[in-house]
Amino acid sequence: MDTMRDRFAPVVSRLLDEDPRVAVVLAEIGKDGFAAAQSRHPDRVINVGIREQLLVGAAAGLALTGLRPVVHTFASFLVERPFEQVKLDLGHQDVGAVLVSAAASFDWPAGGFTHMAPGDVALLDTLDGWTVHVPGHPDEAETLLRHAVAAGDDKVYVRLSAQSNRLGRPVDGQRFRRVREGRAGVVLAVGPMLDAVLDATEGLDVTVLYATTVRPFDAAGLRRATEAAGTDVVLVEPYLAGTSTAAASEALADVPHRVLGLGVGRRELRRYGTIEEHVAAHGLDAGSLRERIGTFVGARAAAGGR
Predict the structure, then answer these.
(1) Partner of 56 for a Cys bridge, out of 1, 80, 82, 100, CB 3.0 to 4.6 A?
(2) Do residues 74 and 116 make contact, with C-beta atoms less than 8 angstroms apart?
């Protein structure tokens, strides 16, 4: 199976052919995938070199001329390093772009902590007006990339990952999708975490929601799920643990509820290892998730049974 990133360049190259508003801005990373498109559209495929602040600034300039820039590099170089340009050149000037990242939280462990960005979505949460897509499969990534480019002049972040679920599911770029029904709590799995969550909750009486668009947060979808499953909510996110706990609590602010946020821990892991070892070290493998989810939803059930 191809990866989300394998899908990225061919899809956006076709969008370049189809839509004269689309432009691509790169900072060396990913340039080979756009070599053919650059020969066809030399004025709309721009490589600024290893200058990530310029990467975002140039995209903002293109947006001011009416183009729809698609900006790509590793998450740590796309959100963290040029954050001031994201905030001011895009946000303050109120112009849109599609930021498409690779490497996610720890997809390239050998790159070390400089190439890891578990805090990217939390950082964008400090800004106004961003849509955030977190696909869990290459097919979903393609759909959400098309949604993002077609979203007028909106500010959109698409978080691609080397981690993937076994199957792609229909996604609409807006709502959470219910994939399992239960009555003892709601588990919200984000993007590539779905397979692990389904394995972890096998046999547990919980509702499983699947999220590939996390901002705006589908508060109505979460509330509907809690009507039958109760208001114990576990969030399983492939980035910094707790990133969406405030959004979930706000959605349930008028009812008693509990929220547990699971995701990537704050502690820096100083050995390269593999993706699977990082997943396990952060407690995001199916076995660890089952223990943590079961303990959380089981505590309420036990208390209710006394």
Answers:
(1) 82
(2) no
Instruction: Tell me what pLDDT residue 299 has.
Output: 60
What's residue 304's pLDDT? 45
CA distance 174 to 151: 12
pLDDT confidence of residue 241: 98
pLDDT at 300: 59
Residues 116-143 pLDDT 10s? 999 999 999 999 999 999 999 999 999 9
How many Å apart are CA 117 and CA 204, to the nearest integer?
Answer: 32
pLDDT of residue 298: 85
In the chain, beta strands by DSSP E: 22-26, 45-47, 68-74, 97-102, 130-133, 155-159, 177-180, 186-190, 207-211, 213-215, 232-240, 258-264
Residue pair 185/292 in contact by the 8 Å Cβ criterion: no
Please tell me the distance from the alpha carbon of residue 67 to that of residue 175, in angstroms, as a whole number.
28
Return the structure tokens found at 26: 């790169």
Tell me whether strands 213-215 and 130-133 are parallel, antiparallel or unpaired: antiparallel
N-terminal to C-terminal alpha carbon distance within the chain? 49
At 228, list the tokens.
């039958």
The structure tokens listed for 116 are: 């890891």
Q: Which residues of the chain have pLDDT under 50?
A: 302-306
DSSP structure string for 263-276: EE-SSPP-S---HH
- What letter represents residue 187's amino acid? V
Q: Retrieve residue 247's tokens.
A: 């959004």
Instruction: Name the burial class of residue 94, with classes exposed (0-12), middle (13-18) and buried (19+) by CB atoms within 10 angstroms of its CB.
Output: exposed
* Dihedral class, residue 116 (left if φ above 0, else alpha if ψ from -120 to 50, else beta): beta
